[in-house]
Write a structure and sequence with these properties.
By secondary structure, the protein is α/β, with parallel strands linked by helices. It is 36% helix and 23% strand.
C-alpha cells in the first residue's frame, strides 16, 4: 500500500522542504504546490511540483489536486489552510476534491472557529485547558474596557496572521491604541504594492486591490518561555507528537531558532483534548507560554504543519511518519535525533553567530538535500568565520 502526499504552501519557508524529506523517508511519494522560488521545489524528495499562483490561488490548488491525486493534502502555512477551506466550500458535496480535503483536515467545518483566536481559546478553556484571558476587541472603547480586565502589558492579535506578524505586545494604553489602529485597518495600497515587490509575493497585490478587515483580540500577557507541541492527528486522535520548549527565537514573537524536546504531561493532555474536540486530522501545532512556576498556558493553534514537526525523535515522535502510518501501515519513522536540543538552520547562525547552542546542540541542516541546503546558505548569505560550522565544530579564522 502506498501513500501520496501533496504539500501546499504559499510562502518560501525551508520547513516545507524538511517536511518533504520526512514524508519521503517514511515511504511516501511527495509532490508540492509552492511559489516558483520556494526551496521545496528544489528538494530531491519531491517527485513533482506545481506553481502556486497568487492571482489564481483556487485554480492552482484545484489543478494540483486533480493532477497529483493525493491521499492527503498537507498545508504548510495558515494562508494555504484558508485556501484549502475555500476550495472545499466551493466544491460540490461528495466530489473527489471535497473528499480528499475532508480526509486531510478531519472536520473542515470546524476550522473557521479553530482559526478565530478568541473563539478557539474560549473553547479550549471549556475543556479545562489553562489559557490566558482573551477578549474580542471591536473598537477603541472596547479596547480600553478589555485592558481593564487583562491589565498591562497585554498582547494584541489579528486573526488571519502568522509567523509573528499581526501580533503586538503593548505596555501602555497609548501603545495599545496605536497597535489596534494598525492591526484593525488594512495597509494602504501603496504599502501593499511595495510589500508585494519587496517580498516577491503577489498576495499583497490582492490586499491592495481588495483590502479586508480582520478580527482583533487582546490577550493577558503571561511572562515566561514559549513552548509548543507539533503533532499528527487522525480523526480526532493524536498519533504522533513532539513537545518542546523554545530556548532561543528570532524575536519575542518570532519563529524559534533553538528548541529542546521535553516530556510534558500538561502539553500532551492539551494536545489530545484539542484534537478530540475538533476532530482533527493532519499536521498541527499548539503554542504555549511556560510561566515561572512551570505551568503552561495555551495561547494559540497553528492549524497546519509547523517547523517543530520536521524533527524526528523516533517512533511516536516522528510527525510525518505518524500521519503517513494512518494511510500506509508500512510507514517507518526516521532514526531518532540523539540530542534533545536542536538548532534550526540557518536561524540561530543569523541571530547570534556566537551562540553557545551552536557548539552543543544538534544542527538541523538539510545536508541530505543539496539544493535545499544551497538555498538555505543563499538566504544566510555569508556565515562569519570563527563561528560554528555544519558539523558543530569551530571553523578556522
Amino acid at each position: 500500500m502506498s501513500c501520496k502526499i501533496l504539500l501546499s504552501t504559499t510562502v518560501s519557508w525551508t520547513s516545507t522542504a524538511r517536511h518533504a524529506s520526512g514524508f519521503a523517508l517514511a515511504g511516501c511519494e511527495v509532490e508540492a504546490l509552492a511559489p516558483a522560488r520556494a526551496p521545496v521545489r528544489l528538494s530531491r524528495y519531491v517527485s513533482r511540483s506545481y506553481v502556486h499562483r497568487s492571482l489564481s490561488v483556487l485554480a492552482s490548488l484545484r489543478g494540483a489536486i486533480r493532477k497529483a491525486k493525493p491521499d492527503l493534502v498537507v498545508s504548510c502555512d495558515d494562508r494555504a489552510v484558508s485556501y484549502l477551506l475555500r476550495l472545499y466550500e466551493s466544491e460540490p458535496a461528495g466530489s473527489d476534491i471535497a473528499r480528499v480535503i475532508a480526509r486531510s483536515l478531519g472536520k473542515p467545518q470546524q476550522y473557521r472557529s479553530l482559526m478565530a483566536r478568541e473563539t478557539f481559546l474560549r473553547n479550549a478553556a471549556e475543556l479545562g485547558i489553562r489559557v490566558p484571558e482573551t477578549l474580542p476587541v471591536t473598537n477603541r472603547d472596547a479596547l480600553q474596557a478589555a485592558i481593564g480586565a487583562t491589565g498591562l502589558p497585554a498582547v494584541l492579535k489579528a486573526d488571519g496572521t502568522w509567523g509573528g506578524e499581526g501580533v503586538s505586545i503593548v505596555r501602555t494604553m497609548e501603545e495599545a491604541l496605536v497597535a489596534f489602529s494598525k492591526l484593525a485597518n488594512p495597509p494602504g495600497r501603496l504599502r501593499s504594492v511595495a510589500r508585494a515587490i519587496r517580498r516577491r509575493d503577489g498576495h499583497w497585490l490582492i490586499s491592495a486591490l481588495a483590502p479586508s478587515t480582520r478580527a482583533i483580540s487582546i490577550q493577558k500577557f503571561i511572562a515566561g518561555r514559549p513552548a509548543a507541541s507539533a503533532f499528527a492527528a487522525w480523526k480526532g486522535e493524536v498519533v504522533s507528537a513532539v513537545y518542546y520548549d523554545v530556548l532561543s527565537a528570532d524575536s519575542s514573537i518570532g519563529p524559534p531558532s533553538v528548541v529542546r524536546r521535553i516530556d510534558c504531561p500538561e502539553i500532551a493532555a492539551a494536545t489530545r483534548f484539542i484534537a478530540q474536540r475538533h476532530g482533527l486530522s493532519g499536521l498541527h501545532g499548539l503554542d504555549f507560554i511556560r510561566d515561572e512556576a512551570g505551568h503552561v498556558h495555551l495561547i494559540e493553534i497553528n492549524p497546519r504543519a509547523t517547523q517543530g514537526g520536521t524533527l524526528p525523535f523516533g517512533a511516536g515522535r516522528d510527525v510525518p511518519a505518524g500521519l503517513a502510518s494512518c494511510v500506509m501501515p508500512t510507514a517507518r519513522p526516521r532514526p531518532a535525533i540523539a540530542n534533545d536540543t536542536v538548532v534550526f538552520f540557518p536561524g540561530e547562525w543569523l541571530r547570534n553567530p556566537a551562540s553557545t547552542y551552536l557548539g552543543t546542540a544538534h544542527h538541523d541542516v538539510p545536508e541530505d538535500d543539496p539544493l535545499v541546503l544551497r538555498a538555505c546558505l543563499g538566504h544566510a548569505r555569508a556565515v562569519p568565520r570563527g563561528t560554528v560550522g555544519l558539523s558543530g565544530r569551530k571553523q578556522p579564522r
